[in-house]
Amino acid sequence: MHPNDTSTFLSVLKQHGMDFFKFGNKITPEKGRLLISEPFLQDPNFDRTVVLLCEHNEEGSFGFILNKPAIVKVGEVMEELKNFDELIFIGGPVQQDTLHFIHRSAAIQSGTEVIKNIHWGGDFENVLFLADTRQLEPTQIRFFLGYSGWGPGQLEEELAEDAWIVCDFVTEELLFETSPANIWKKALSNMGGRFSVYANYPVDPNLN
Question: What is the pTM of this model?
Fold first, then answer.
């Protein structure tokens, strides 16, 4: 059978008792964990995205999309960062006129630890000085326009609907060295088991 669209395809699976995307993912969302969008998530803001959670509590959650590069470079957005020839990333749909960053540089002051050796934010003047004096490598920092945010209980509702897979296997290599085009697939593959199957699923189920 060749379904005409994603919703038809999923309904066919359910009719045959194959609710394949009921993940049974028991990992809870916490600061420093990843949210990996399910293969057929319909929200264009989060289609096949990976979000690094930088905060999660009773007041809500926020983080940054790791694999959604913009069409402009960091130095084109911030003249003070002209030494950076890397693309800036779209961190999410919220406040896309604001600049944010995560980093793994011990030289940047006043950041908030997300996981060991990884921080978000910090003294921006310090960042500019380190960049200007070439003490900060592009592979040590990633800049974002905007962020991804959820109100109280909103993320839990989306998890109950299987919109996200929570991953607690986070590495510096994934965050800073993996090509954006490969992050979603690599994050799922790192989880192993049937999540590796999801990683190889085509964007269009008609191509399966």
Answer: 0.87
**Rounded to whole angstroms, how far apart are CA atoms 188 and 198?**
7
pLDDT in tens, 123-182: 999 999 999 898 998 899 999 999 999 999 999 999 999 899 999 999 999 999 999 999
For residues 137 and 121, what is the distance between their CA atoms, to the nearest angstrom? Answer: 16
Secondary structure, 3-state, 28-71: CCCCCCEEEECCCCCCCCCCCCEEEEEEEECCEEEEEECCCEEE
- Asked if residue 87 lies in contact with residue 70, where contact means CB atoms within 8 angstroms, the answer is yes
Q: How many CA atoms lie within 13 A of 149 on its CB side?
A: 10
| pLDDT tens by residue, 32-81 | 999 999 988 889 999 999 999 999 999 999 999 999 999 999 999 998 88
Q: Which two tokens stand for residue 136?
A: 């900060």
The answer to whether position 78 is within a domain reads yes
Amino acid at 170: V
**Domain count across the chain:** 1
Residue 74: φ, ψ to 5°: -55, -45
Residues of the domain holding 114: 28-207
Question: How far apart (Å, rounded) are the C-alpha atoms in residues 202 and 40?
Answer: 10
Residue 199, in any domain of the structure: yes
